[in-house]
Write a structure and sequence with these properties.
There is one protein chain. The protein is an alpha/beta fold. The chain has one domain: Alpha-Beta Complex (YbaK protein), CATH 3.90.960.
């Protein structure tokens, strides 16, 4: 679906296009800081908060991790924040999907640019190379407006 690039960030998109936040999923790149050099793309519902300092950090096996900076996300994925999609990512970038993303019959994801979104059945994500569905990757909480 077409999207005004100025409305690509989650809260603005959901409000402008009437999409419930529990049907909007963000693809967020996380990078390790100690040690540096480990990355993962995480897919979470907008109604959930990615557990970066808990589950993600432990699974990356690092002491410190944080959201990748916008320029780092662009370098790793070729996509801008607000449009990152789990489709077409480099094969060496793992993709972790919070199990809650798989519950609805459809979700909206970034389409690779800030000017489009994808409406898909979550089961399609299982076909993407490098995907792991993880229970508890994110927690219900303040909506994320990063992707």
């Amino acid at each position: 679906m077409a999207c005004d690039p100025e409305l690509a960030d989650t809260a603005a998109f959901c409000e402008a296009y009437g999409i419930p936040a529990d049907r909007s999923a963000n693809t967020i790149v996380v990078s390790s800081r100690r040690p540096e050099g480990r990355h993962v793309a995480c897919v979470v519902l907008a109604t959930h908060r990615l557990d970066v300092n808990g589950e993600v950090r432990r699974r990356l096996e690092v002491k410190k991790a944080s959201f990748a900076r916008p320029e780092e996300t662009m370098s790793l994925t070729g996509m801008m924040i607000g449009g990152v999609t789990p489709f077409g990512l480099p094969p060496d970038l793992p993709i972790w999907i919070d199990a809650a993303v798989m519950a609805p019959d459809w979700v909206i994801l970034g389409a690779g640019s800030r000017s489009a979104k994808l409406r898909i059945a979550p089961d399609l994500l299982r076909a993407v190379v490098g995907v792991t569905v993880i229970e508890g990757l994110a927690k219900v909480g303040s909506p994320i407006d990063d992707g």
